[in-house]
Design a protein that fits this description.
about 40% helix; single chain; about 425 residues; globular; 2 domains
């Protein structure tokens, strides 16, 4: 069963502006399936998981591309980055043909890749200005339940529209079931049993994406590192602490965090800095982009125990941040330009800041309903001399309502 993706519209839009598009994302989040649905009837497809095709692509990239021609979908392009220079040459040659004939430019190549760590530099060097890039993540809750999901904005007039979208209220228990399951397509569609899926997923991710970037002798340490990182979701990232727990040096820890970030397993939320004060904590906060994978790594056996464990607040916060980040990706927006957090050495913290030009929307994330004094730290933002708008308190309430002049409650099921 195919579940419609919010990103489909942006993929089609970007495809009109470039002769090549690249779709990045972690393994098994639905990149290839979505591309097949959108372009499969008109484009030939080759996957570099096929050993014969991969061998030809690596040994003779020019012959490989001549054999398949274009328009062409190439899946797992990171397995043969030598193709990129040849793709560039073909695009440049065809551009001249279109320029001379006055023909309209077409989409020639669609590339998908699950290992951005290996591919990013090659794409930047070879296809700069020639390709559009789209990030995909696992299912958002709106996609799982078939709702249209506009680009997230904390503006009151925008969030009010979500109340009339026909979404069914989801209780706190149901939300934690969503958190426990996560958004991987095979699990959400019932194709795979959750625990068996994640066990296989981790083995595939480590064997195909990670081992080529680390020494083979470090595999068990990397597995331990994954679990220790998962236990720190929604916390500030301190490399020295993680390194000490894993038994690696800080330099290795930074590289491994970079691997997780670039392959889409985690997202690093940066602190808001406006050169106002040196009292701001500078460490980013770490969030897993799929809460199901994070819960599996933390070894929580079911949703009920997850809801009642000491980490329930961290998982709820991870769920909210990941939903917003997925929404940005679906609209081809860079979340790092708008999303931040605030914390100073006096331990005054605001979970999420949505910054747009000279406007700041403070956002608190609370797992329960009717939290005590949720807006108590919003006043610290006044030092930035920007427009502080009424913010949000995202929790498990059932509707949008005013808390005070500083904020409104916002039900998490409307994200």
């Amino acid at each position: 069963m195919y579940i419609k993706r919010t990103a489909e519209k942006m993929i089609l839009e970007v495809s009109k502006s470039f002769p090549c598009i690249v779709v990045y994302g972690p393994r098994q989040v639905g990149k290839s399936t979505t591309i097949d649905i959108l372009f499969g009837e008109k484009y030939r497809k080759v996957t570099l998981d096929d050993t014969d095709d991969r061998a030809l692509a690596l040994s003779n990239p020019k012959l490989f591309l001549e054999s398949y021609g274009w328009p062409l979908i190439i899946d797992e392009i990171q397995k043969a980055p030598v193709l990129l220079d040849e793709i560039k040459a073909i695009i440049d040659k065809q551009r001249l043909v279109w320029m001379k004939s006055g023909e309209k430019r077409q989409l020639m190549f669609i590339l998908t890749g699950s290992n951005r760590f290996e591919l990013q530099e090659s794409i930047s060097d070879s296809l700069a200005g020639r390709c559009g890039i789209i990030d995909m993540a696992s299912f958002s809750q709106a996609e799982k339940y078939g709702y249209k999901n506009p680009l997230f904005s904390p503006d009151l007039s925008e969030i009010r529209k979500r109340e009339t979208s026909g979404r069914r209220y989801r209780t706190r228990k149901e939300i934690y079931e969503d958190i426990f399951i996560g958004g991987m397509p095979d699990i959400c569609t019932g194709e795979s049993e959750r625990d068996a899926y994640f066990k296989s997923y981790l083995n595939t991710y480590i064997e195909k994406d990670v081992l080529k970037l680390i020494s083979a002798s470090s595999e068990m340490q990397f597995r331990n590192f994954l679990s220790i990182a998962a236990l720190r979701t929604a916390q500030e990232l301190h490399y020295d602490e993680i390194a000490a727990n894993v038994g690696i040096d800080v330099r290795t820890c930074k590289r491994w965090i970079s691997i997780l970030q670039t392959s889409g397993i985690i997202y690093l939320l940066q602190p808001y800095m406006a050169n106002i004060s040196n009292r701001i904590i500078k460490a980013p906060k770490l969030y897993f982009t799929d809460t199901g994978l994070c819960a599996y790594l933390c070894k929580w056996p079911n949703a009920e125990m997850l809801e009642n464990c000491a980490m329930n607040g961290a998982f709820f916060e991870t769920f909210v941040v990941s939903e917003v980040v997925k929404n940005f990706y679906a609209y081809n927006k860079d979340p790092s330009k708008n999303l931040f957090y605030y914390r100073d050495i006096d331990r005054k913290e605001i979970d999420l800041l949505f910054v747009e030009g000279d406007i700041i929307y403070p956002i608190e994330i609370k797992k329960g309903t009717s939290p005590t004094k949720p807006t108590k730290n919003f006043d610290v933002l006044e030092k930035y001399k920007l427009r502080i708008m009424p913010g949000l308190v995202i929790d498990t309430c059932d509707r949008i309502r005013a808390i005070n002049e500083k904020a409104y409650t916002f039900p998490v099921y409307l994200l």
